[in-house]
Write a structure and sequence with these properties.
two-stranded antiparallel sheet, alpha/beta, 3-stranded parallel sheet
Length: 112
């Protein structure tokens, strides 16, 4: 049975964490849209690959890819980068991915 929370996250003591605060890892999405990325998204893919590998030296990285790009992306990433197949419509995880708030007691809540 679903559990409906009738209060707001703010009422329950939750807040949006700062980008500088510790976190468990980074999620990225592989750029593929040719209507928003120039030159077939190749320059963006090169940049995203470099960023993913650089971040993976310090924390876990997961990169979502569309099914037809899975093998290509897996071959470009170090073994330390987790590659998962996802359906998505843009490469900006911050804009289209889940958002979480935290409280001072270790609680995490997903928000819309």
């Amino acid at each position: 049975m679903p559990n409906t929370i009738r209060s707001t996250p703010r009422e329950d003591g939750y807040r949006m964490p700062g980008e500088f605060e510790p976190h468990a890892g980074t999620w990225m999405l592989w750029p593929t849209r040719t209507d928003t990325w120039r030159l077939g998204a190749k320059p963006a893919q090169d940049a995203f690959a470099e960023v993913a590998v650089a971040i993976a030296e310090f924390e876990p990285v997961t990169i979502g890819v569309i099914s037809c790009q899975y093998e290509h992306v897996r071959s470009r990433m170090s073994a330390s980068v987790r590659v998962v197949e996802l359906s998505y419509n843009d490469a900006w995880m911050r804009d289209i991915g889940p958002t979480f708030v935290v409280n001072g007691q270790g609680g995490v809540r997903g928000i819309d």
